[in-house]
Design goal:
ATP binds at residues 112, 129-130, 156, 235. It catalyses: thiamine phosphate + ATP = thiamine diphosphate + ADP. Residues 35-148 form the PurM-like N-terminal domain. This is Thiamine-monophosphate kinase. With 341 residues, the chain is α+β, with helices and mostly antiparallel strands. The protein has two domains: 7-148, PurM-like, N-terminal domain (60s Ribosomal Protein L30, Chain: A); 164-332, Alpha-Beta Complex (Phosphoribosyl-aminoimidazole Synthetase, Chain A, domain 2), CATH 3.90.650.10. The protein is built from ten helices and 13 strands. It has helices at residues 7-19, 68-84, 105-122, 173-190, 202-209, 215-223, 238-249, 264-272, 277-283, 299-302, and strands spanning 30-32, 39-43, 46-56, 89-99, 125-133, 139-147, 164-168, 230-234, 251-256, 289-294, 308-316, 321-324, 330-332. Strand 1 and strand 2 (39-43) form a beta hairpin. Helix 4 packs across helix 5. It is globular, with a radius of gyration of 20 Å. The relative contact order is 0.16. The protein binds thiamine diphosphate.
Length: 341
């Protein structure tokens, strides 16, 4: 009988490893290939960064509560975030969409309004793409291109023992926002007359519907001449993503529970859902904040930024990956973030 392996048994990253195990690098200009937030090529002497992300209706967004303008903005922002994660400056995007005939021209225009707003925000050009039809809802694929200033791109694999682990912004808010929107959707479907109760939750709703890539932080790090030893963006959740840095760098880590930046709105929402703010921050995903490590000598500069929190430090691989609670209890960090399959 023909062998049949379930994709779920491998997971997203196992599947990628499996499919690319025989992929060869033929061009001397390929500086960094599959496995990081973006690839890096030497394009006639300039280091160019390239990344692609797909957004699929029903998997990445629900049009019942996602305004199309926000969706257009988010499709660009999440790709720009991957470029930022290499310490690069985004310059261009291509956009491919598969549209169901449920959508009107006006609806697609609204989506493009968001795309153009993001291009303006991040100072990038939309330079091409593809448009086709879909029988199964809306598919969006963006390819983003960026350039490395100062020949110093940052990968996931350079973290060293005793480096400090930093993240930008706050964590868990997008997850809390998603839970709120899903709850209000369920209530609305059961009682169509009821108005959604989203008042005073603008931060968490904003984080899920209209995230921002942290280009501001990349620029700040460049101004301060801080080169992180490793970096990625947090899309699947801190617990999953810090493991990527530790595995790629062959290290362990300690994360301090009490140092995780969690917005009061996130904590409040978590409580309503019987969760802890910490579990939203660790396992929620879609934060699109930057997660990076710096050498201790950069600490004095890092503390100058209100946008950055130091949340832990890198240890030797044998020490494993742990969360340290305020009470001094050590819990093994398990990747419990978003799983694509
Ligand atoms: N279901 C809906 C309808 N909307 C959502 N936003 C989610 C689930 C949650 N969700 C979708 S994708 C994702 C999460 C938490 C994680 C990031 O997606 P991925 O495709 O892995 O992004 P990448 O790492 O490629 O940037």
């Amino acid at each position: 009988m023909e062998q049949r392996t379930e994709i779920a048994s491998m997971g997203e990253f196992g599947l990628i490893d499996h499919l690319t195990r025989n992929n060869e690098t033929r061009q001397a200009s390929t500086l960094l290939s599959i496995g990081d937030d973006a690839a890096v090529i030497d394009h006639f002497g300039r280091q160019t960064v390239i990344s692609t992300d797909i957004l699929v209706e029903g998997v990445h967004f629900d049009l019942m509560y996602t305004p199309l303008k926000h969706l257009g903005y988010k499709a660009v922002a999440v790709n720009v975030s991957d470029i930022c994660a290499m310490m690069a400056t985004p310059t261009h995007i291509t956009l491919s969409i598969a549209l169901s005939n449920r959508m009107s021209v006006e609806a697609v225009e609204e989506f493009y309004e968001g795309v153009y707003a993001a291009c303006e925000q991040y100072n990038i050009d939309l330079i091409g793409g593809d448009t086709t039809s879909s029988q199964k809802g809306l598919f969006i694929s963006v390819t983003a291109i960026g350039e490395i200033r100062n020949d110093q791109f940052v990968t996931r694999s350079g973290a060293k023992v005793n480096d400090l682990i930093c993240c930008t912004g706050d964590l868990g808010a997008a997850y809390a926002g998603l839970q709120l929107l899903e709850r209000e959707k369920r209530i609305f479907l059961e009682n169509p007359g009821v108005q959604p109760d989203l008042q005073q939750k603008s931060h968490i709703i904003g984080k899920i519907l209209k995230p921002e890539a942290r280009l501001d932080v990349v620029e700040w790090l460049q101004e301060q001449q801080i080169v992180p030893t490793s970096m990625m963006d947090i899309s699947d959740g801190l617990s999953s993503d810090i493991l990527h840095i530790c595995r790629a760098s062959e290290t362990g880590c300690i994360i301090y529970d009490e140092k995780l930046p969690i917005d009061p709105e996130t904590k409040e929402m978590a409580q309503e859902f019987g969760l802890s703010g910490t579990s939203c921050a660790l396992n929620g995903g879609e934060d699109y904040e930057l997660l990076f490590t710096i050498s201790q000598s950069d600490y004095d500069k890092i503390v100058l930024s209100e946008k950055i929190s130091v949340i832990g430090y890198i240890t030797a691989a044998e020490e494993g990956m742990h969360l340290l609670t305020r009470q001094g209890n050590k819990h093994k960090l398990v990747a419990q973030g978003w799983q694509a399959f």
